[in-house]
Amino acid sequence: MDEPDFTIGVEEEYLLVDKQTRALAVVPDAMMKECEAALGGQVSPEFLQCQIEVGTGICRTAGEAFDDLAHLRRTIRDCAASFGLTPIAASCHPWADWKKQHHTDKQRYNQLRRDLGGVGRRMLICGMHVHVGLNDDALRADLMGQLSYFLPHLLALSVSSPFWQGEDTGLASYRISIFDNLPRTGLPPLLDSWDAYERSVTALVDLGVIEDASKIWWDLRPSAAFPTLETRICDVPPRLSHTIGLAALVQCLCRMLWRLRVKNQRWRRYDAVLVRENRWRAQRYGTGKGLIDFGRGEIVPFADLFDELLELVAEDAGVLQAVQALDGLRPILTEGTSSDRQRAVYAATEGSNGDKMNAVIDHLIDEFSRDL
After folding, report:
1. Res 141 pLDDT > 80
2. Mean pLDDT calculated for residue range 56-73
3. Mean pLDDT of 303-318
4. CA quadruple 22, 25, 31, 37: dihedral positive or negative?
């Protein structure tokens, strides 16, 4: 069996804030034109007017993805600066009110607003998506069912949304709570084949429920636009090195599962009820309380799980030139997730709740450029 390319592509969504007030700001048309002139099709508006999305090209290594995404982040930051604005990479603005935000006036987003009703209005959230190139549909379907087991691990490392409308939610990823209110979200179903996936999509399209597979928003899905498997569970990390580390981990996990397939082996597919429990633990605690190892029948500290993950994909990291990128995730275990770091800034800041929340935003502004 020929080895797939395992190329990667990364998409990030950012929130735009006013440098002085730290409030969310509408992306000016002039700024969007500047970004598009500099980045072409790698930048686009998002659902809400305060959001902007970027996407790398097709990258063979994590190093290529780092360079491309660093260029995208720098360009967005520099274009925004001339308008008194700045981007932050976090899945929720700490204190913004979703009721005061407006969606982008494009046909696609107008239709989405009509379709989703009130739950769509609350979509003041940002995510990070990783595409892994797999040009065989049967392989994409097979790996999707196995890769689902690792989705909680990826979420736990990425969490960046502890605050919502000026309050600590008690969750490490409040974004997941918002997104799960939409239809066709959550863990992907355990499908037996690519044909089973296509039958499900065709049924929904024929009924007029969705136009195409792009309206399926599972945590992990076959991309409707590219021959890729798209991981969508992650919060957007403030630090570029963490984004690239997560992308490299997804890439390596896909190759590890492919290696098993070549040997007529596979990762055990656990019932969604079990994986969903780990998903909740990641959503609630990030890396703080560990995840369940169902094979061992116990809750394991996340640092131990992380070491096991790196050992599991060590061969693949070497082949894919991803060792350095994976090492970039290790500071999360010592410094905390973004949600942990945001809470630490809040706790260390004197003054009112508003002062503390603005200190968190200043922290996120700094982290956006930390690795650039």
Report:
1. yes
2. 98
3. 97
4. positive
Is 2 among the domain residues? no
What is the reported pLDDT for 102? Answer: 77
> Which of 19, 18, 16 minimizes the C-alpha distance to 32?
16
Angle (CA) 355-361-362 rounded to 5° is 85
CATH number at residue 249: 3.30.590.20
Domain that holds residue 309: 8-367
Q: How confident is the model at residue 269, as a pLDDT?
A: 87
Number of domains in the chain: 1
pLDDT tens digits, 168-219: 999 999 999 999 989 999 999 988 899 999 999 999 999 988 988 989 999 9
The Cα 229–Cα 251 span in angstroms is 10
User: Per the domain annotation, does 196 fall within a domain?
Assistant: yes
Burial class (CB in 10 A: 0-12, 13-18, 19+), 173: buried
SS (H, E, C) the chain: CCCCCCCEEEEEEEEEEECCCCCECCCCHHHHHHHHHHHHHHEEECCECCEEEEECCCECCHHHHHHHHHHHHHHHHHHHHCCCEEEECCCCCCCCCHHHCCECCCHHHHHHHHHHHHHHHCCCCCEEEEEEECCCHHHHHHHHHHHHHHHHHHHHHHCCECEECCEECCCCEHHHHHHCCCCCCCCCCCCCCHHHHHHHHHHHHHCCCCCCHHHCCCCEEECCCCCEEEEEEEECCCCHHHHHHHHHHHHHHHHHHHHHHHCCCCCCCCCHHHHHHHHHHHHHHCCCCCEEECCCCEEECHHHHHHHHHHHCHHHHHHCCCHHHHHCCCHHHHHCCHHHHHHHHHHHCCCCHHHHHHHHHHHHHHHHCCCC
pLDDT at 1 over 70: no
User: Would you say residue 28 lies in a domain?
Assistant: yes
Q: What is the mean pLDDT of the chain?
A: 94
Residue 110 has pLDDT above 80, yes or no: no
Better-predicted residue by pLDDT, 1 or 315: 315
Q: Is residue 29 part of a domain?
A: yes
Q: Give pLDDT, residue 107.
A: 74
Phi-psi label, residue 52: left if phi above 0, alpha if psi -120 to 50, beta otherwise: beta
